[in-house]
């Protein structure tokens, strides 16, 4: 089977959900449900407390670990924070950065996200950088302006070689946890805009290799529409990643669409 230029990726952002024992239970069931899936990269982003021990359970499986946030110093007097080195040792391959909930509830801005992105890449952890407009921005016709500001700010000063490593998640804030997903057309429009902007940071060949995810009320019954889009390479899933049944249906639907994409002439 031919491979896609950008390997598909689906990440479950559990947010502040699941204790360690609940997390283990989930992962043991998910492993069984998706044993056949080897052409989609599957990532679970549990709370920090579950990372280390889940890594033991996931060893040798087709499911990888990500964190939901981190600080940018290696160590030091930053009470309550977690460093890239700690995440690396806990087995994280990915870290979500700049999620809208971090921006809204904890005041994170692009300059901080940028420092975190650089620290993650220095440590060999792939950042999944979240960007997206609020409802008022969309209604005011400012979606592109907002997305551009967040993207440019998050990637400032990154060499093209490093820039190529990042994953960008387009998550319109009005679609998160609301059940009101963007249409596949809307998501593709913004994703294509993002890919064009990435040429400035990474050059045109590298920009073609950067994976773009859609996030915001992704469910088993709407995922296929997103994955069919030429610039969407996967999904960042919140609520529907908390149930094995839903998350595995999403993963299998992505696998199916990826197989279709592979058959199409590029
Ligand atoms: P929902 O899938 O619950 O809308 O959350 C999306 C999200 O915030 C993923 O990071």
Give a brief outline of the structure.
By secondary structure, the protein is an alpha/beta fold.
How many helix segments?
12
Radius of gyration: 17 Å
Q: How many angstroms does the end-to-end distance come to?
A: 14 Å
The first-level CATH class name? Alpha Beta
CATH fold type: TIM Barrel
List low-confidence stretches.
none
**Biggest sheet layout:** 8 strands, parallel, barrel
Give the ordered list of helices and strands: EHEHEHEHHEHHHEHHEHEH
Name the beta content range.
Answer: 15-25%
Order of strands across the main sheet: 1-2-3-4-5-6-7-8
Structural class: alpha/beta
Number of domains: 1
CATH homology-level superfamily: Aldolase class I
CATH architecture field: Alpha-Beta Barrel
Q: Which percent range fits the helix content?
A: 40-55%
Oligomer: single chain
On the 0-100 scale, what is the average pLDDT?
A: 96
């Amino acid at each position: 089977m031919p491979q896609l230029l950008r390997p598909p990726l689906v990440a479950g952002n559990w947010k502040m959900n699941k204790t360690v024992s609940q997390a283990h239970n989930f992962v043991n069931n998910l492993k069984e449900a998706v044993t056949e899936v080897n052409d989609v990269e599957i990532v679970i982003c549990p709370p920090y407390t579950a990372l280390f021990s889940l890594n033991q359970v996931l060893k040798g499986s087709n499911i990888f670990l990500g964190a939901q946030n981190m600080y940018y110093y290696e160590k030091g007097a930053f009470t309550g924070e977690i460093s890239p080195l700690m995440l690396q040792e806990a087995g994280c391959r990915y870290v979500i950065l700049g999620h809208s909930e971090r921006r809204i509830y904890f005041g994170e801005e692009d300059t901080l996200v940028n420092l975190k992105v650089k620290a993650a890449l220095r440590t060999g952890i792939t950042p999944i950088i979240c960007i997206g407009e609020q409802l008022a921005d969309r209604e005011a016709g400012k979606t592109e302006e907002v997305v551009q500001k967040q993207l440019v700010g998050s990637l400032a000063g990154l060499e093209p070689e490093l820039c190529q490593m990042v994953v960008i998640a387009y998550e319109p804030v009005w679609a998160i946890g609301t059940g009101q997903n963007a249409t596949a057309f809307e998501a593709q429009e913004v994703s294509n805009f993002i890919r064009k902007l990435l040429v400035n940071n990474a050059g045109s060949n590298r920009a073609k290799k950067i994976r773009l995810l859609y996030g915001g009320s992704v469910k088993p019954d709407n995922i296929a529409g997103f994955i069919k889009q030429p610039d969407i390479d996967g999904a960042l899933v919140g609520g529907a990643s908390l149930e094995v049944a839903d998350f595995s249906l999403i993963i299998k639907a992505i696998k199916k669409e990826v197989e279709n994409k592979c058959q199409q002439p590029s």
